[in-house]
Amino acid sequence: MSARGEKYCSEACLARYLEARNWNVDKSRKMLEESLKWRALSRPEDIRWPDVSVEAETGKMYRATFTDREGRTVVVMRPAKQNTSSHEGQLQYLIYTLENAVLSLPEGHDKMVWLIDFTGWTLAHATPFKTARDCMNVLQNHYPE
């Protein structure tokens, strides 16, 4: 395993993968191996602000400056603020925001809260199906629990 992989595979990370697969070790191992391959190819830790700043201009998604009652990091998503049609850009921005949120988790916390504000949203703001599908894939398969 690479040094990056070892850094990623904390005890809390392993527990999240186990929990995501109902504590089935074989399924959890397979899921984690797929995530490590994905991380090696997509290199989420290398995405920088200049790479995604256009996506962030309207405030459609960001890590909040506050936490919830239990001290967990809060990610705010405002789909009505969608400002681009770039599939790759939107996917990169989601990953950038997730990585930033994970790095901001307080000591002893391994989960975050998502607050989705649909105020003003219409079908005109809808993300293309391919982008939505790929975003869901990233969320459920590479950032479990």
What is the ordering of alpha helices and beta strands?
A: HHHHEEHEH
Main sheet overview? 3 strands, mixed
Query: How many β-strand stretches?
Result: 3
Our Rg estimate from Cα atoms comes to 16 Å
Total count of domains: 2
Q: What overall geometry do the principal axes of the alpha carbons give?
A: globular
**Uncertain runs:** none
Protein traits:
145 residues; 2 domains; 3 strands; 50% helix; CRAL-TRIO domain-containing protein; CRAL-TRIO_dom_sf; phosphatidylinositol transfer activity; CRAL/TRIO_N_dom; CRAL/TRIO_N_dom_sf
Topology:
Blueprint: H1 3-8, H2 11-20, H3 25-42, H4 49-56, E1 61-67, E2 73-77, H5 87-103, E3 113-116, H6 129-142
Parallel strand pairs: 2-3
Antiparallel strand pairs: 1-2
Helix pairs in contact: 2-3, 4-5, 5-6
Structural commentary:
This protein has 145 residues and is mainly α. The chain has 2 domains: 1-42; 50-138, no CATH class. It is built from 6 helices and 3 strands; from the N terminus they run ααααββαβα. A 3-stranded mixed sheet has the order 1-2-3, covered by helices on one side. It is globular. InterPro entries: CRAL-TRIO_dom, CRAL-TRIO_dom_sf, CRAL/TRIO_N_dom, CRAL/TRIO_N_dom_sf, PI_Transfer_CRAL-TRIO. One of its GO terms (molecular function) is phosphatidylinositol transfer activity.
Short note summarizing the structure:
The chain has 145 residues and is mainly alpha-helical. It has 2 domains: 1-42; 50-138, no CATH class. It contains 6 helices and 3 strands.
